[in-house]
Design a protein that fits this description.
Order of helices and strands: HEHEEHEHHHEHEHEHHHHHHHHH
Structural class: alpha/beta
Strand content: 5-15%
Shape: globular
Distance between the termini: 60 Å
Number of helices: 17
Length: about 400
Amino acid sequence: MQFKNITGQNEVKRRLIQTVHEQRVSHAQLFHGPEGSRKLVVAIAYAQYINCRNRSYEPDSPGGGDACGTCPSCIKFSKLIHPDLHFIYPVATTKEVDRDPMSHDFIKTWRETLLENDFRLNLNDWYKVAGFEKKQGIINADDCSEILRTLSYKSYESEFKVMIIWMADRLYHAAAPKILKILEEPPDKSLFILITENPDKIINTILSRTQAVRFSKLKDEDLMHDLTKNYNCTIDEAQRIIPLADGNLTRAVKILVKDEDELFYLEKFILWMRLCYMNNLSKTMEFVGEIAKLGREKQKNFLAYTERIIRNALLINYKNPNLTRLNQEEKDFLVKFGKFINHTNIPAFSEELEKAQFHIDRNANPSILFMDLSMTFTVLLLSAEKALSKN
C-alpha cells in the first residue's frame, strides 16, 4: 500500500514520511482517532515506506514522498506477506479454534478481509468474518508472548521489523505487563504501531511509552474523492451519503451498499422507542430477549446508534434539520418522535446510553441492562409527553 493511494490524512502522512527521512522514527507509536479515519491502512503504508528499497522523499510535493511500489519489499507488503510485517488483533474461540486462540490462527482470514475490503475494517465486521460475532475478542497473554518471541529474532530481509497491534485497547489487562519492557527497551530496528479508537481505555503505563499520532475524521472532499473514484458512486449519491457518514469512510461504504446492520439498527430503534412510549412491558421483554442474544459488540453498536439518533432528534425538534446527519427513513421517524426529545431530558438519555455501553464492555448482563434502560426511557418519554400536554 502506497501513501498516494490513501485519500486524506495528508498532514499525518507528511509527518510520518519526514520522520523516516530525518531518521527519527519513534520505536512505539499510537495511532488514534475515530472509526473510518484510515489508521490501519496508513500504518501499513508507513511500514512499507520504511522498508522500501527505493523510497522517495519530496518535501515540497503535496504527498511528501512515497514507497516505490515495485521493489521486492513493496510487492510483499502489498500482499501483506512480508516476513517482517506482523499483526496482532483481538481474537476469541471459534468452532475451528476451540481453545487458546492466537492472532496467527486467523492470519489468512485477516489478510483476505483487508485486501478484499480496501483495508476498511471495524471491530464488529472483524468479529463477524472471523466467526466470533457473539463474543468479545481480546488480545491475550499468548499473543503478548508471541510479540516477545517474534521481536527477539533479527529481521528477515528488511531494515525494520514492524508489529502492528490493531485495537490495542482490547489488550487484556493481565497480559499488558508482558510487553511493557519491550515497549520501553525494544530490540534495535523494531517498530510498534498500536492502533485504537479509544486511547482512554489503554493503561497509562503503555500510553506513556508511545508517541501519539492523532487522526481526525476524513474531510468531506476526501470522502467525495474516495466514493466516486474507488466505489463506483455517483456525485449525487456521494452528496447524499457524506453528511450521514460524518467523516467515516467505513460507514460511508456501508450506507452506499445498504449494509444490513444499518437497516437492522434503524428497525430495532423504532420498535424500541415505540414500546417504551407505549409502556408495553410484555412486548418490551420480548424485545430485550432478542437484543440480549446479539453479540456484545453489536449490542454496543446498537447503543451507539441509538445515542446518535437521539442527539439528532433534538435538532429535528428545534427546527434545525439541515444540521442532522440522518437518512430519509430516520428523518421520517424523528419528525414525529423528535418532539419527545428536548433540552430537559437529552442529558439523561445520553448519560444512560453511555453508561450502558460502558457496562456492556465489562460483561454486564444484557437482559438486565436493556430492561433497565427501557424502563428509564419509558419514564423520560412519558414525562416529556406530560409536559407537552400542559403547553
